[in-house]
Amino acid sequence: MEAGALTSDWLPTFRAVPRELFVPDRIWPGIADGTRQTALIDRAQDPEAWFEAVYSDIPLTTQWDDGRHTGDGLGTTPTSSNSMPRMVFSMLADLDVQEGQCVLEIGTGTGWNAGLLAHRLGGAHVVSVEYDADVSKGAVENLRCAGLSPLVLVGDGRLGCAGRAPFDRVVATCSIGEVPRTWIEQTRPGGVVVAPWGTEYGGECIVRLVVGDDGPAQGRFTLSSAFMRLRQQRTERPPFDAYFKGQEWPANGTRSTTLLSPADIGGWLEQFVIGLQVSGAFWRAERYDDGTYTLWTYSTDTQSWASADYEPGATEYAVVQSGPRRLWDETEAAHRWWKKNDRPGFNRFGLTVDGDGERVWLDSPDNPVPRASVQR
């Protein structure tokens, strides 16, 4: 498979547990390098297109809006999917399961990942927790049709499965912004936790943590990812009119200019780096017909905001900032830190989880990533 994600030890399982058994008739194919979905494919109406999508290296959205969306068009938010094969097998490689080990999976989805693990290890060694009862029901049926029988439970994935702990491996197929302590507590010393971990601002990457003898877990990020958020860790964005408090733009904002192009901070890695240092903030882009756009940055407490206007071909960009935090200054400081450190990629970062919380570091645990430093 592309990029060597499908290693030889997983090849027999890949052949024995075909993806098509775990994909419903109605799917919205995604794209390999992004988070967008394309139009509905219905197997009954276009079986050739359905099979082509199933055996392409792309994610397949299978549920929108926690099941509330039932139409043929795109829903508002994708909430369940069958992950792209390259990502599935890359994460299984990170998991590094061995014969006889027990695995806890968080996020059953369509059941394909649980099925792959059950075939490799035996159903008695795999527990999968799914929050959505309807999604879980579909996964169990898919697994039954494939002749596989891991234990599938409906519940809050943050809580793991204490009754079957300890586990040798824990894998999450939904993204998190904070590692639930339960996952580490239910993992044997020397065991591994693999999960997509992302910042509130944006950007996400798979982290591979090894649990220490005395409880802390530590490890590096391995590859870029884009998973749906664990439902209990979703963030509610304040309405945008909460920031101006009835005033017309630019309200009480302070004007300035910047040499940093908004286009230079829109990548997944750049968002990740900024999010590590600019906490409690998120962004959105307001795009215009002429190719220009405004990059808005908001603090989650609704007290601060910043705007940066992008124009193609410009070398200087207009900025407005308001509130006790200078969010664009923080963004610039985070970007400067990244450049100063030779623009490190995901795999130079790591994560430590212990009794003091979580700390992301660069290159080694004794070099934590700082908060953005802004001169006032």
Describe the protein's architecture and organization.
The chain has eight helices and 18 strands. Helix 7 crosses helix 8. A hairpin with a 5-residue loop joins strand 10 and strand 11 (217-224). It is an alpha+beta fold and 376 residues long. It is globular and about 65 Å long. The strands form three sheets. The chain has a nine-stranded mixed beta sheet with strand order 7-6-5-8-9-10-11-17-18. The chain has a five-stranded antiparallel beta sheet with strand order 12-16-15-14-13, with no helix packed on it. A four-stranded antiparallel beta sheet has the order 2-1-3-4, with helices on one face. The model has no long low-confidence stretch (mean pLDDT 94). Helix content is 20%, strand content 28%. The chain has helices at 11-16, 47-54, 85-95, 112-121, 133-145, 181-185, 268-277, 327-340, and strands at 26-29, 41-42, 60-64, 78-82, 103-106, 126-130, 151-154, 167-172, 187-198, 204-211, 217-224, 254-258, 281-287, 293-299, 305-310, 317-322, 349-354, 357-362.
